[in-house]
Structure formats: C-alpha cells, structure tokens
Amino acid sequence: MSETEAQSPSLPAPVGRAVQPTPDRSAIPVIRTIAMPADTNPAGDIFGGWLMSQMDLGASTIATRRARGRTVTAAVEAMTFISPVKVGDEVTIYGRIVSTGRTSIRVFVEAWRRSRESDDVSQVTHATFTFVAIDAERKPRALPPLEGEAGS
Question: Count of CB atoms within 10 A of residue 15's CB?
C-alpha cells in the first residue's frame, strides 16, 4: 500500500452498496466529534456556527503546525450548507493547505457527517480559511521555511 493510500480519509464502501462520495483524498482528518443536543439552535437543528467553529479549529491545527507557532483566523471564504447535521451524527473535519504567502496560510476544509447507525457519509459544507502567523506581540511574522527549503 502506498503512503498516499495509507493516509486516505476515504471510507471503504460497504459490501453490496454503491461507492459513496468521499472527502478530498489529499486532505487529512483533523477533528472527529459527535453532534450533541447542546449544539442545537432553538429549532433543534445543529447550529451552523457550531459546525463553523469545528472547521476553524481543524483548519487552525493545520495552519499552526505549518507556521510552527501561533496563527489567527483572518478570513473565511463563503460556506454553503449542503446537507444538515443531526443530533448524534459523527462529524469529521478534513483539511489541507491550499497555499502559503509570506505570513499567511490558506487551508481548505470539508465537513462530512455519518449517522451513527450507518456507514454512509455525506458532505455537509466546505470553505477555505485564511490564517496569519503572528509573533508574541501579535504582529504578523514570516512563515518558517519548510524542511529541505533554503534557510532551514
């Protein structure tokens, strides 16, 4: 099995069923959680803000690791909610770095849900989060070079 296959977030297709859509194969799982009753809005649906915060946490994990230090969320590109999350659903956040600038990191994030009684997964939403690396005075700082790049 290749390294790429070993790191794939795709779920195996259940026997006798069609293959379900799967997360971006280049993305890594960064958060897996269960949607709980406390995460609902007044109508009893999972609050979109809760889902967005999970995505921000997952994306920040990737950005902070790349920056080798503190980062702050600077922007989030538009989100469209594709399917609902229900109480008890398992929610998995996948992410990958899209690009980096001198001080910034753009992370593409997908949220997927799985009913706890099923192997079927469906995408809930996706967005691109932009982070800025900051120093101890909370000022933007240059990203360190990746290992193997000049200056590392």
Answer: 6
User: What would the pLDDT profile of 38-84 be if each residue is shown by its tens digit?
Assistant: 999 888 889 999 999 999 999 999 999 999 999 999 999 989 899 99
Which alpha helices (DSSP H) does 12-152 contain, by range? 48-67
Widest CA span of the chain, in angstroms?
Answer: 57
- pLDDT tens sequence across 80-101: 899 999 999 999 999 999 999 9
- As given in the structure block, the two tokens for residue 79 are 């989100």
User: What tokens does 105 get?
Assistant: 């990191």
20, β-bridge pairs: none
Q: Other CB atoms closer than 10 Å to residue 112's CB: what's the count?
A: 26
